[in-house]
Amino acid sequence: MTLVELRPLTIGPITVDMPVVLAPMAGVTNAPFRRLCRRFGAGLYVSEMISARALCEGNQKTDHLASFAPDETPRSLQLAGVDPTYVGRAVQRLVDQDRIDHLDLNFGCPVRKVTRHGGGGALPYKLRLLEAVISAAVDNAGSVPVTVKMRVGIDDEHLTYLDAGRIAEDCGAAAVALHGRTVAQLYSGTADWTTIARLKEAVTSIPVLGNGDIWEAADALAMMDQTGCDGVVIGRGCLGRPWLFGQLAAAFEGRPIPDPPSVAEVREIMIEHAELLVEWFGDYKGIREFRKHTAWYLKGYPVGGAIRGRLGQVENLDQLATLLFTLTDAALPPENIRVARGHTRGPQVVALPDGWLDDPHDDLVAAADGDSAASGG
Prior knowledge:
This protein has 377 residues and is of the alpha/beta class. The chain has two domains: 9-252, Aldolase class I (TIM Barrel, Alpha-Beta Barrel); 263-331, Non-ribosomal Peptide Synthetase Peptidyl Carrier Protein, Chain A, CATH 1.10.1200. 38% of the residues lie in helices and 14% in strands. The chain contains 14 helices and twelve strands. The protein has helices at residues 31-40, 52-56, 60-65, 84-96, 112-115, 127-141, 161-171, 193-202, 217-227, 244-252, 263-281, 283-298, 305-311, 317-324; strands at residues 9-11, 14-16, 20-22, 44-51, 76-80, 102-107, 146-151, 153-155, 158-159, 175-179, 208-211, 231-234. The strands form three sheets. Strands 3-4-5-6-7-10-11-12 form an eight-stranded parallel β-barrel, surrounded by five helices. Strands 1-2 form a two-stranded antiparallel ribbon. A two-stranded antiparallel ribbon has the order 8-9. Strand 3 (20-22), helix 1 (31-40) and strand 4 form a beta-alpha-beta unit. The model has no long low-confidence stretch (mean pLDDT 95).
């Protein structure tokens, strides 16, 4: 196994023991999931995407998604927006209300309903707009560090990551993170880690983090060794695998990596996760939020299809526990450790505003409704 010198990750005034960041994922990285992951290992655990406009307008759903457990620290939130005014106001509101310790800006979302308004992974193509949005966040953040997460570009003909990284650095961002895929790729193919290495060479005064295809602890060490990046961002690799953060901690510390849990051990983690969601969202919404996780938790384990289907329709915690205790204990077959979970679709034709690719230096901004009034992706 590759050996990498363990260095804490420092982002502005925040230092975390492990150079590991939980990637914001819509409908996943809410407070209960962050709490569960934190139990397994140290890191920076970021909220799911929050809309700047929705936050400014006091959207009730958004306010709840932007909430943190009383003992959660540091409080790390990802914000998305295409309008510098909305972004600045949202950041000012969060800071004035003492709601965050770290702010991440979303410039990597590949979802069509985001990119067609010039948001997410489409926005870095407009260099002036990118600079304005980052500056609005940094200028209103005070002592709260602002980081940037992005993709390589819109497609192979419109790469943006090097310019975007330099702009983020010049605007005062505390770190940049790069997913080694284009928006057009979505989640297809493999992440190009060489782009992370190039970004590390171009951005020298702040940490550069790598994201993409980290399915097990050895992948994180390999990425850092091959690219020289300062830390890793974990996305789909932790879906149904919150214990990955414990395996990462062991790997970075040079300890033996624990084996994946057996079905019986996974069952206890699933029940804990569901209980946390019910406590946070209430009985009805909480158990429905958990349904999608059942398939991820049991992916690769020798569990029959019939029980998987029933678990995806559970109505309450008692029903969940009853079904789970019918499962036979078994280990995860080694050949299934790297099985993909979460989104696998792609490539796609990227949806963009009219004229978006005409000139990266023009002053074109998204339509008036470009900032979504809803959060969560």
